Amino acid sequence: MDLGIRGKRGLVCAASKGLGRGCAEALAEAGVDLVINARGAEALERTAREIAEKHGVSVTPIAADITTQDGRAAVLEALGGQADILVTNAGGPPPGTWTDWSREDFIKAIDANMLTAVALMQALVPGMMERGWGRVVNITSQSVRTPIAILGLSNTARAGLTGFVAGMSRQVAPHGVVVNNLLPGIHATDRADSLDAGVAKSEGIGIDEARRRREATIPTRSYGRPEDFGATCAFLCSQQARFIVGQNVLLDGGASNITI
């Protein structure tokens, strides 16, 4: 399918690997020129080079912490202050127990997983509205629909972003700007490895056993693949997605047994 976005310009955050890279790859395949961001310069530059060579698009890597003002300023400068497509993404806060989290822990999580996305939308969406076309995809988490007890910091921050998008997306839709959220379940990424390692340590089992047990809770009996996630992201950025507004699209292999 031709997504109709060849020649558009996009920003993908946390794109050196994992779900962010999956999104960048899919957008590049559709012909989108990219600015990609992550904190680690070496991995990011390698990713940019590989994507550009494979898909024949322009890929500009900006190594910076997108959760900081300076990091966002560097990325926005590389974009020249405007983009047609925005994919927000940032690593999730660590797991833990509700009694252990301080106010600073919550502020840090909200800064990274809610306010960073809001700041990027506030910077780029007005220009999309002026031009009459834009797409925003926020990578959040399945925990928005089915909260995960040990990920309370993530639950809190991402639910806040979901509430913001619910209102904002309807306000910008008349101007040709479509905003949605993608809610990943467990995918084969470093984040999954980290969570599995935590379970393995706490339960005194091997990491392979921890993964096998988690896979058994997913109807597909496997973790998701970043490339499949990326394909869904690219579709939500397509011309054909114009009528999908303010939705929370769940990609979890059926793990969340919910009907609405």
From TrEMBL:
Pfam families for the chain: adh_short_C2 (PF13561)
Similarity comment: family membership: Belongs to the short-chain dehydrogenases/reductases (SDR) family.
CDD domains per UniProt: BKR_like_SDR_like
Protein name: Short-chain dehydrogenase
Domain of life according to the entry: Bacteria
